[in-house]
Amino acid sequence: MKKRYILGLIGVVLFILLIVLSLCLVCNEEFEVDIFLLKSVVKQGEEISQDITIESFTDTSYSVDVVGFDFFALSESEFSLSKGEERVVELSFNAVDVEAGVYVGYLSVSTGVTSEMVPIVIEVQTQNVYFVPNLDVSHNYKEVVPGNDFVSSVRIVNVKDTKDHTLDVTYQIQNLDSEVLFTESESIVVGTDISITKSFNLPSDVNLGDYVFIVLVENEESFGTASDFFSVVDKKVSYSENNMVYTGIISVAILLFLVVILILFLRTVGERNRLLAELSRQHSLEYKFSLKDLEKEEKVALKKARGSKKVKKDYELMIKKELQKLKRRQFKQTKALKGLKSVKEMEKKLDFWQSKTQKEVRSELEKELKAKFRKNKLF
Question: What pTM did the predictor assign?
């Protein structure tokens, strides 16, 4: 009985593979881009770069362009690739003369027959951001039907002090062509933090596609930004509606097996993605708070050294090395988590890493950094 069950399961899996292969042949994609979104936060005066890999599935010529920006540079914009060949294109951005704000556009990769669009969002902030906005767009509003409301929670945190400050806050909704669909401004008073729920009714004739919700927080001392994506769709497609594709090509019995297998597979993939996202959030907080505490230590060291340029330079170099070490450790954790086969193993490993609090991690970094500086007699 068990053997028959295994053979039957293998048969269903093979059938699914045949369907997938058939769909792949129908799709007949010409190329693939290794990223689906480019979103970065940069301080004024800084530079960023991103390598983009294009893999060709046929012999053809390519045209690459950045739309919506006049301050991006591409290492090359036109080239030809053979089947199976790859090309790495460097996309660089210099924020030296760019005003603080959120800039939206996209990278276009085209063969003349088919094209692919990679959304780009660049948040340019002042060197010091004392009032940090955070967005929380719930899953229910990641897709919105025209004529319905888009809702997002906005939290603004004062990282400077506990006093009340008057801030100018601007809310915007833009499409990927940098066209502003909606904008609203208000002045608010923030102490330690404030939470706001914003609701916008989308016009019934709004174009379908991807949009960016933007929050700009400004006063005379800092300019903070936050952004998140959502889509305007004709209707929200349910999982059961997607499965109807199979009803014309398979029998009822095989369809039942297929649905069960797909549900189990999607649940597993969803759980894995959730755990990887949780690790990414943990890494983000770990980096943020470590950097904040190390910069605090830098100020103390500079005060003791009476503003010595050598101490400042050495301290900044050491901080950079320590944060690079932190990033390498985080990369290894992500790679290790992806390598685990079962969700239970991933949960166990993630719980183990999370048992080490942010405070402990920062304490380790600071302790190691101080030891190196004492050894070098920097203070």
Answer: 0.55
